[in-house]
Amino acid sequence: MKSKLFSFGFLLVGLSLFLLTSTFLFSCKKESVSTPKKIDYNLIGAEHNKGLDYVFNYVKENTAKDKSKFKTKADFLSLVEKGTQEFLENSDLLVNEKNIAIAIDESKKPFTFYSSCINSGIKSTTLEKLWPDEVDNLLTDKQKEILSEMNDILNNNTDIQAIIEGLNKLEDKINSECSTEEKDVLLSATSIAKYSFQYWHDNFDTWMNEFGKEYNLTSGRKFSWSEVGKNDVAYGVGGGVAGAIVGGSVSLGILTLPGWAAGAIGGAVGGSIGNAILQIW
To answer: Which residues pair with 256 in a beta bridge?
Structure first.
C-alpha cells in the first residue's frame, strides 16, 4: 500500500514540476516575442546608396546603347526615374508587392516636382523645408523642431565631416527627447542625410567623368551638397510618413519594419538622384 501511495505521490510531484516548467518556458517565450527589436536605421541609408549606384550603372548601360535618345534634360531625367523604379522593384529589402508599390509611389513625387521645374524654367529645385507640404499636418511639433535643426546643420556646413558630426549629435537629442513614434521618421532622416552626403562626396566626380563630357552635364555653378541632402531628407520624411499610413512591412535582416521604411527609401532615392542630375546638367 505504501509503495502505491509513494508511486502516486511521485507521479503528482513529477506532473507538478512538468506544469511549472512548461508555464515558465511559455512565459519566457511569450516575453521574448513581445520584446521589441532594436532598429538599425543605418540600413535605410545604406540601401539608399545602393540605389544611387544601381541607377548610375543603369544610366551608363542605357546611354551606351543609343546616346541620341537623350538630348535634353527631360530625356535624361526620365531615364534616371526608370532606373530608380527598376532598383526598387529589385531591392532585397522590399520583399513583397505592397512594399514595392509604396516605395515606387513615393519615388515618383520628387520626379514630378523636378519635371515641373524643367517645364516652367524654374532653376531652384530645393524644397524650403525638410518635409513636403502634404505631410505638414502629420508631423508633431517636436519632429518639426528637430528637422529645422537638421536644416541648419545642412545649410551652415560645407565640410562633410562637420555635417556628419552635427547629425550624430542631433541623433543623441532625438534618442533622449523624442517618443518612439517620432524617432522612426527622424532617425531614418539623419541616416539618409549622412549616407547621401558621403556618397556624393565620394562619387560626384565619377558621375561627371562618365556623363559630363558626353552630355555636357554642367550648370556652370558649384555642386551643392546641401541642396541634394535637403531634398533627400525631405522626400525621405514625406515617403516615411506616407508609407506609415499605407502600411506594409519591410524585411531588414532579422527585423521586420513597418511600411514607413519602404516609403523613406523610395522618396529619398528619387529626391537625391533627381536633384543631383538637375544640378550637374
So the answer is: 251
Map out the domains of the chain as residue ranges.
51-280
Do the Cβ atoms of 110 and 132 come closer than 8 Å?
no
DSSP 125: -
* Dist CA 113 CA 126 (whole Å): 10
C-alpha grid cell for residue 95?
520583399
**Residue 205 phi, psi dihedral angles, 5° rounding:** -60, -35
The string of DSSP letters for 35-79 reads: SPPPP-THHHHHHHHHHHHHHHHHHHHHHHH-GGG--SHHHHHHH
Q: Which three cell numbers stand for residue 120?
A: 516652367
pTM, 2 dp:
0.79
Over the Cα atoms of the chain, what is R_g? Answer: 25
Cβ–Cβ under 8 Å, residues 169 and 151: no
For the record, the C-alpha cell of 207 comes out as: 558621375
Grid coordinates given for 197: 552626403
Distance between CA atoms of residues 195 and 202, nearest Å:
11
Distance of CA 183 to the CA centre of its chain: 14
Each residue of 102-114: pLDDT tens digit? Answer: 899 999 998 898 8
In tens, the pLDDT along 242-251 reads: 777 766 555 4
Side chain identity, residue 217: L
- Which are the contacts of 46, defined by CB distance < 8 A and separation ≥ 6? 195
